[in-house]
Amino acid sequence: MSVISITAALIAGLHAGFDSPDLTISDPAPAPVLAPALAPPQLGEVMTWASTWLETGTAGIALELTQAGRTTRWRWIDPRRSAGDSASNEDRDTAGKDTKAGKRKTPKPDKGSQTSDTSKNSSRGNSRWGSQRRDGTPSNNSAGNDGADENPTESVEAAPPAGGLTEPPEASLDTPPPVDGAPDPAPDVPVDESAVGGDPQPAPDPDPAATAPQPVPPEFVATVGADSMVTLTEVATGREIISPNRMPLWTPNGGFPEEDSLPPTVIFQPKTNGFDVVYQFTNDTGVVKKIGNVYVGGIRFGQEIMLRKFDTDGKELVVNHNNSNYFDGGNSYPYWYYSPVIVAREGNIVLGASMCYNAVSYQHNVLMRMESPGGKFTEGGRNWQMLFQLNSKTEFSEAGNIQPGETRTYKLTLRAEKLKAGDHENEWLRTLVPYRDYFVGQYGGVQYERDPRPIAVFDVSSLGAISTGNERGWNGNERLDTHGWGMWVDRLAAVRDRGFNRFVMYGAGGMYNINRENNYPFQITSPWNQFPVILNTLPLLQSFIQSVPSGELGFWWGRSVQVMKTWDTPTIEILDPSNPEHVQLGFAEMDNAVLAGATTIGLDSVAAQGVWDTYEWLTMLHERYPQVKFIAEPLSSDILHTLAGTFVYGTRVGVDEAYNIEGPIVLADFINQGHEVWAGISANPLRILEGIPAGDDIPEEVIRLYMRRLADMGYVPFVQLGVTLNWPINAVESWNNSVPADLIR
């Protein structure tokens, strides 16, 4: 490669804004430091730059440039020299990411991370920031180093409600990871041949201060007072986004006697553009204690704000306190909210807060709500506050209390973001990077293989088919109790010929006739044992699925965590993974399903069980049936979404419009990249949405249109209608568009 061609490549790289992957910024000091990105020159301006030296060597070339009295050295390194280092660094980056919570054994590989490189590359064109951070410096796309959450050298002290704020621990989850690899050597010293006396003289080194990286100043600064109340100030304007309203960072648990709650040690940690608050509870009493409430009080937003809704796809809703006390809305995690976060916006200022805690081990929910308090809490004028109620009375868990001798740690994180013209539409996700990093470190990534292909759905039995002589409601001419699987195989084959190769069956064990309120029953396959024709024809079903290229058979497990010990019973017991009888009854249903060739099981109504128990139950199912994928319904939390896909309704009518699907589940895209979400398309809602009279056929082009809309938002179409696939309608990897490129893991 000639010096001229190399110089041309360098100039082209400079014109592109120093964004070439083959350019490495270096400093004459022994340890390399990143210089801030200079303003990209126009081609016509390049020649006005003073080129002090240009040299070539076996490792590459080096170029020193001066602009406005500021000198920066650039070095192009032969990629063949650094290939080995890059590979070893990649190995180190991959290691150590599989830490889990609770009783998990060695985790399975993170399926989402296997395609992360492709995701990053393909997503750059969709991001307005490309491969650079917002300050112009190159992004390393590391989940653990977002560049906006550096640790301070020391923490600020303040007094908690009881016991006083204390110094932070010596190490925390936020400690930056060590930098892999040895520093690049500085380039050879250039020679100034114009020196007086004829002998070449070394050119003077540039001022190290001029080439050192210039830190990006924070846009917001947080402090805490002796009253244990926080102030968050916008640096540019001096506006106090948060200021004391007399609500402390912790209060006793509402709805219980004050003495029942255990006051924590509170540690305030200022962070770039926000703060963390660590709550350490040590129960050195002899009685069980409750945890209490965590607040971020005194948010100085106006009467009307925008609040994101995380029990659906994360859309923004308008909230207005109308100059009066407001305690409405909100929801609980991990029962209904995808993650324990609150994101509120006024104008271009976004506040994102999260509660980092081990829900599987601590076994309790968190109620989250945006409030506008009254009385003494209106100090400084009416304001807003964020509530995180730990183990709230509305969905109380006795196991969630703090036992004598037990110690727990919780961390509240809050970050502020000032949105700017040209930002990614979901730039607010940056405020939740601390939670994302905590979650991935605690639970790992997605542990199943995502399948984007649509699914055809069949009802083996239904309530409408129940009659005298057919008390289990077996459907139509394909009655399973009299014909076995033969006619169902014919029906599946016809749908295969219309372009489907994934199939799910509802009501495979029949329906309850007397106790209809308990449909769909827990027993999905064990009733087959009473009908020899069903068991004898199972090989037909197995052979068919094996004949379909990449064929997938699934059963929907009705009331999957509500154990019913006898047929058509009024009695239900919530499945306890520590109860051997419950476990064996569950395994009995699964054994027959696997015998039939099932590799997918839908888990109905998992919200009836505590998420910590569902997590343990799913772990047991994974270990016993590693070839099976599970799909949890309704929309599950981020915790369960690592072990199972989830289900939403893609066509809804007659319900709160706020629950309708309008985009991808943004938090799932951000936290659990590689996830799978099914979206149901049903006949009656679709007729209403499209103005089609009841009973009329729905045109296939309408069905395909809805399938495509959902697939383009990242949902796997789950279709209970007859339709031919004229072309593949597969769910896209929605995180490539919904997440800023440098935040994709």
Strand order, biggest sheet?
22-23-24-27-28-29-30-31
- Percent of residues in helices comes to 10-25%
Number of strands: 31
Summing up helix and strand content along with how strands pair, one would put the structural category as alpha+beta
Assess the beta-strand content as a share of residues. Answer: 15-25%
Mean pLDDT: 80
- Span from first to last CA? 35 Å
**Number of DSSP helices?**
19
Using only CA atoms, what is the Rg? 30 Å
Biggest beta-sheet profile: 8 strands, parallel, barrel
Label the overall shape. Answer: globular
Low-pLDDT residue intervals, each spanning 5 or more residues: 1-164, 166-200
Describe the structure.
With 745 residues, the chain is an alpha+beta fold. The chain has 19 helices and 31 strands. It has an eight-stranded parallel beta barrel, surrounded by four helices. Helix 15 links the parallel strand 28 and strand 29. It starts with a helix and ends in a 7-residue tail after the last helix. The relative contact order is 0.10. Mean pLDDT is 80; it is low at 1-164 and 166-200.
Strand-helix topology:
Layout: H1 3-15, E1 23-26, H2 43-46, E2 50-56, E3 60-67, E4 70-77, H3 79-94, H4 111-114, H5 116-123, E5 191-192, E6 201-202, H6 208-211, E7 220-224, E8 230-234, E9 240-242, E10 250-251, E11 265-271, E12 274-282, E13 292-299, E14 304-308, E15 316-320, E16 331-333, E17 341-346, E18 349-356, H7 359-362, E19 366-371, E20 384-390, E21 407-418, H8 433-443, E22 455-459, H9 480-483, H10 486-496, E23 502-506, H11 532-536, H12 538-547, E24 552-557, E25 562-563, E26 573-574, H13 580-595, E27 598-603, H14 611-624, E28 629-632, H15 638-641, E29 645-649, H16 666-671, E30 677-681, H17 683-690, H18 700-712, E31 716-719, H19 735-738
Parallel strand pairs: 22-23, 22-31, 23-24, 24-27, 27-28, 28-29, 29-30, 30-31
Antiparallel strand pairs: 1-4, 2-3, 3-4, 5-6, 7-8, 8-9, 10-13, 11-12, 12-21, 13-20, 14-15, 14-17, 16-19, 17-18, 18-21, 19-20, 25-26
